[in-house]
Specification:
By secondary structure, this protein is mainly β. The protein has two domains: 138 residues, Protein of unknown function DUF2961 (Jelly Rolls); 178 residues, Sandwich (Jelly Rolls), CATH 2.60.120.1390. 7% of the residues lie in helices and 38% in strands. It contains four helices and 23 strands. The radius of gyration is 23 Å and the shape is globular. It comes from Paenibacillus antri. This is DUF2961 domain-containing protein.
């Protein structure tokens, strides 16, 4: 299997290296553009055939949530429907509008404080490419610096799939017959012999291969969120499908309920919470660069939110894949309110939960927290 440097010495014929950037056309040092509130700007419009090789961006604005309020779109070969549709931050590996360092092979958020956004996914096109950014904010985007580095080719073979990325988000619902539980702590749990209630992170039609996932989970409770199995139904097959996982952390190449920052070129945990248990925000990532998931007609990829879909979680994902065009159009991206974060759960919320539990236990004077109704202390 060739490594990333395997062909670096190969001389190319009729390939030209090009760049579109925000440099100051006057020769000055104002090497940025501005976006007014609500404005969409065309960052690149390229004719002919080529391959986008690298994208770098950094930005400055009064809107502290700009990484969710700015929306990135990419179009290949004159299509009207975008092949890439995602909030800017989520695409580059920055969840919840936050800024933090993130390092992987195809994507990175580099210092200072993760504010330099980089993408190395190659993006081929045969008949033009267009990249836009929408400032869906009430604040001016005061400065946007960017590079879009690409190669111009005489032609691109049809065998090169077009790059796609899709952001999805869902506040997951628990099964009413079981309630919210995990590991059977508060109620028995059933078996899940279907993907019907799973969180879906890819719903693709056409021929292609799946190459990566950024997974942002915000858990309102301290219970481990990752008993959910990943499930892949290829070309319309029935459950359990060709690939069936054993737990969320297993799919992300880790083990035993991790809660620590870890960076590998292909997988890792770029952000973890420091609250009670696994309460709060965790960013997991996995890039299937050595082991893509291939499909000829369709792919439905999903993951349980807790075993048997037992947990309420705020899940957001960006899936990355290549496929032959045309692609199935994406649903309209959630509006600004629909992209907003859930309210953080804090220590006072936990104390209110304790108060409600004390009341349910009869309000005894020395209740500690591990009693059951049959053994409560007065």
């Amino acid at each position: 299997m060739p490594g990333p440097l395997a062909n670096i010495m190969q001389l190319q014929n009729k390939v030209k290296t090009k760049r579109i950037s925000s440099y100051d056309r006057t020769g000055g040092n104002k090497d940025f553009i501005r976006l007014a509130p609500g404005e969409t700007v065309e960052l690149a419009s390229i004719e002919g055939a080529g391959i986008v090789k690298h994208i770098w961006m950094t930005l400055n604005t009064q809107d502290k949530f700009i990484r969710r309020n700015a929306v990135l779109r990419m179009y290949w070969d004159g299509e009207e429907e975008p092949s890439v549709l995602s909030p800017l931050g989520d695409f580059f590996g920055q969840g919840w509008g936050e800024e933090y360092n993130f390092a992987s092979l195809p994507l990175a958020a580099a210092p200072h404080q993760g504010r330099a956004l980089n993408c190395y996914f190659p993006m081929p096109f045969g008949a033009g490419a267009r990249i836009t950014l929408e400032n869906d904010s009430e604040s001016e985007l005061a400065s946007l610096y960017y590079y879009i580095d690409y190669e111009r080719h005489e032609s691109i073979p049809d065998s090169l799939g077009r790059f796609h990325a899709w952001w999805n988000r869902e506040l997951t619902e628990v099964r009413p017959e079981e309630g919210e539980t995990e590991w059977g702590v508060v109620a028995p749990q059933g078996n899940n012999a279907t993907d019907r209630h799973n969180y879906v992170f890819a719903d693709i039609e056409g021929k292609g291969h799946f190459v990566g996932l950024n997974y942002y989970v915000d858990s309102p409770g301290p219970m481990w969120y990752g008993e959910g199995d990943d499930m892949w139904l290829i070309d319309g097959e029935d459950w359990p499908g060709s690939l069936h996982g054993t737990g969320t952390e297993d799919f992300f190449n880790s083990s035993w309920c991790p809660n620590e920052v870890y960076s590998h070129p292909y997988f890792g945990y770029a952000r973890v919470p420091d609250k009670l248990g696994w309460m709060g925000r965790t960013h997991c990532y996995r890039f299937l660069l050595e082991d893509p998931v291939y499909f000829d007609k369709s792919l439905r990829a999903s993951i349980e939110h807790g075993h048997d879909n037992s947990l309420t979680l705020d899940l957001a994902t960006v899936a990355y894949w290549y496929q032959a065009e045309p692609h199935k159009p994406f649903p309209a991206i959630a509006n600004r309110e629909g992209r907003a974060n859930m309210k953080p759960i804090g220590f006072m919320d936990v104390h209110r939960w304790r108060h409600a539990w004390r009341q349910s236990m009869g309000g005894g004077a020395t209740l500690w927290g591990d009693e059951t109704k049959t053994e409560k202390k007065e």
